[in-house]
Write a structure and sequence with these properties.
mainly alpha; 11 helices
Length: 200
């Protein structure tokens, strides 16, 4: 990976308390706090781009686009909504990448599925309201949740849950659509007016 991207990926995350304090300052127009929130979150941009399976110049382009999405997320982020900035900005980063880099549907689907194995999301929140059997299919298919292991094939999942492969495929698609809607809600749940001191 490019040395610059390695440096970004190595930036340590902020503690929740520090992030909250900076977010409040940024919300009220403190440019220094805003810059620190953006800088400390750049590792998320690199992670998101790498989860898309991009390399070389496309990886660099994705990081550049994702940084724009991160800045927008920081400017929209309301620290009083009970959500970590990493969770909120993850969606905005991905949106910015998809808008600037036309990605095949297969890659977008892989990106969605990778969210299920990313600790920045609260799994219970993503799966809230989902039928128990659909949750079991997702956990078995993608190796998520407490005590879960490696992702497994649809044939293995069907055998384990007593379903047909066709049933597993349908339930998986329905469950992923539910997760996609939940991710969209996370991306839109803060106010949409811009705050802060303008671009870096």
């Amino acid at each position: 990976m490019d040395p610059y991207l390695r440096r970004l990926a190595a930036i340590p995350p902020l503690r929740a308390e520090s992030e909250h304090e900076l977010a409040i300052l940024s919300w009220h127009g403190d440019a220094g706090a805003r810059d620190e929130l953006i800088t400390s979150s750049l590792r998320l941009v690199v992670l998101r781009a790498r989860l898309l399976g991009l390399h070389g110049s496309r990886l660099l382009d994705a990081v550049q686009s994702g940084t724009v999405g991160l800045i927008e997320a920081v400017d929209r982020f309301d620290p009083n909504r009970g959500c970590r900035l990493s969770t909120y900005s993850w969606w905005w980063i991905g949106q910015a990448m998809r808008q600037s880099l036309p990605l095949p549907e297969l890659v977008q689907e892989a990106d969605l599925r990778s969210n299920l194995r990313t600790p920045m999301y609260d799994e219970e929140n993503l799966l809230e309201g989902l039928d128990r059997e659909l949750v079991e299919v997702l956990r078995a298919r993608f190796g998520i949740g407490a005590g879960s292991g490696r992702p497994t094939t649809r044939v293995e999942v069907a055998r384990r849950l007593g379903l047909t492969v066709s049933q597993v495929r349908t339930k998986e698609a329905n469950a992923l659509e539910h997760v996609r809607r939940r991710l969209a809600k996370v991306g839109h749940r803060a106010p949409h007016e811009h705050r802060g001191a303008g671009p870096l």
